[in-house]
Amino acid sequence: MKVEAILSGKKSGVVTVAPEDTIATVARVLAEHGIGAVVVSDGLDGVAGIITERDIVRALARFGRDTVDHGVAELMTRDVVTATAHDSIDDVSERMTRGKFRHVPVMEGNRLIGMVSIGDVVKHRIESIEAEASAMREYIATA
Question: Where does the CBS domain start and stop, copy by copy (predicted)?
Answer without folding.
Answer: 10-67, 76-132
